[in-house]
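Structure tokens please, single chain.
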Amino acid sequence: MPLQDIVPIIRKIMSKRNLTSEEAKNAMKIALQDKDGYYYLSFLTAMVTKGETSDELFGFYQAMNETATKIKTEIDSKNLIDLSGTGGAKLKIINVSTAASFVVAGSGVKVAKQAYFGVTSPTGSADVFSEFGIDVKQINPKQVIDGLKKVGIIPSYYQYFSPKLENRARLAHKLFVEQGLRFRTPFHLIAFAFNPVEEIKRRVYGIFDEKFLQILAELFQKAGYERGMTFYGLDGICEISNLGPTKIIEFSKRNLEDYTIQPEDLGIKKASFEDIKAVSREQNIVDFLKILYNKEKGPKKDIVLANAAAAFYVLEKVKSLKDGVELAKKILEEDKASKKLEELTDFMGDMNKLNSWKKNLIK
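Here you go.
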């Protein structure tokens, strides 16, 4: 479709009228073709200004689903998960989902971790992996399959290995990473909601705003997911929070249940933002390693335990989130999470880089 076809759609959005799922899907497909980014940015800005509906986000999801390269692994969906979220939260904290992914992988669960560079925070998951010689931009579908089967955890981002999305990946990196254009777009909501690994049917998904919790839970239902959670830490983080209450929507194929939990419900202590805030890129890497090597004993470890627990609960490895925290503790104490980091780095990264970080920063 010609790029000009998106102009009347942008005008419709600017007049505060909502799109159908089909209109949203087609508009996104057109925007993805824009090599210069003018129509692309105009479309996204108009959507953010109006506000996204459930139908529109599902249309965007369908556009990703129809243009991305899919990956078939033949792994049991009950032993496979992705711990990711929207990013873009008000408070900038340590890399929780990245560390939690290694804890979950340490249990034997396969983790297809979507990873991207920091846009609104010092480090995204891709930045963490890059410190150990792992470049998510270079990971291809075969490596995803091999990594899941041989190591049990693999980072990737489907837009880098999907030919039809290559232009969008290039534009996003240029605008949001290189040029530091730091505002959230509909892609913050749905880019990681889609995962190219076909067998993934269970998700935990942190969101930067409470108002999108049900919308995204319904999106996962429409997309055929079997079980999962969307959540928002009410203090302003897109994680299961140890700062205060966390609003959760738990979903299955047909049902939604919303509830709020406190840190004490999980058996962890309430913390302050200062305890878990992101200070710098270097400090985030240090904190990540201290957690995985079980050198961290305080709030930073606790929030990782809580988010690993959510994955264990969704996968039905435990009966409650509190039980999930205990399982996560055991994995860290038995050095199973750090072992997964070393196995992954040996598989596709640079052990010298990891050892350098360990030598200088693990106390």
